[in-house]
Known about the structure:
Layout: H1 3-14, H2 19-31, E1 35-36, H3 37-44, H4 48-60, E2 64-69, E3 83-88, H5 103-114, H6 117-142, H7 148-161, E4 166-168, E5 177-179, H8 185-190, H9 192-210, E6 215-219, E7 228-232, H10 234-237
Antiparallel strand pairs: 1-3, 2-3, 4-5, 5-7, 6-7
Amino acid sequence: MSERRSERDLAAVALLTEPTRRALYGYVASRGKPVGRDEAAKATGVARGLAAFHLDRLVEAGLLETSFARLSGRRGPGAGRPAKLYTRAGRDLDVSVPPRDYALPAHILSDVVAGSRSVRDEAVERAHEVGVELGAEARLEAGSPRARSRLREALLTALENEGFEPEPDDQGGAGALRLRNCPFDSLAKEHTDLMCGMNHGLVRGLVEGLQIGDVEAVLDPAPGRCCVRLVPARSAADPA
């Protein structure tokens, strides 16, 4: 990682120390779709002008990206000017003091693993084992393994801790979750099969470790999110 990029990324992250700016960034990032200034201002309880100022600062820093669209959906004369919309930027920020570069060895190791079917299978299995371990730890921390709501909260927390950004999937059935973020996105772009297999193994193991029997992790790749979804378990839906 070059010193220039490190300094730029550090400056961008430093912008988030300002509470209002951090709240606005957090809201936009959590939405998973373009957000207008009015919506962001209302959600964070600040004036529209102040929200616009901070949002544009986040764009300048590369933390957010912009697009334009008419929120009313109307076209032609009288439809009004397109609104400026904000989404989380697609690029990654890498901040380390002093500078460290873990991405390069990760890419090199991924090249090696992806080149051997047997090693790739071992990596997926190890990811599954790690997921089971994480799930078992989360189950202990849940405090009441008999309470499904506690296990559900533990699952959400574990997924959030690993960077998957889970959210309810209204179209997936009761208890379904969509994972908005792939924590290994840069690697997945180069080695899709390997990283999707490891993601699947990790999340599948997490569910098994938590001993949640009514949901299961399935591969369901789609642009802009993780390739894994959590859906109602087929066994739970089958009659006894």
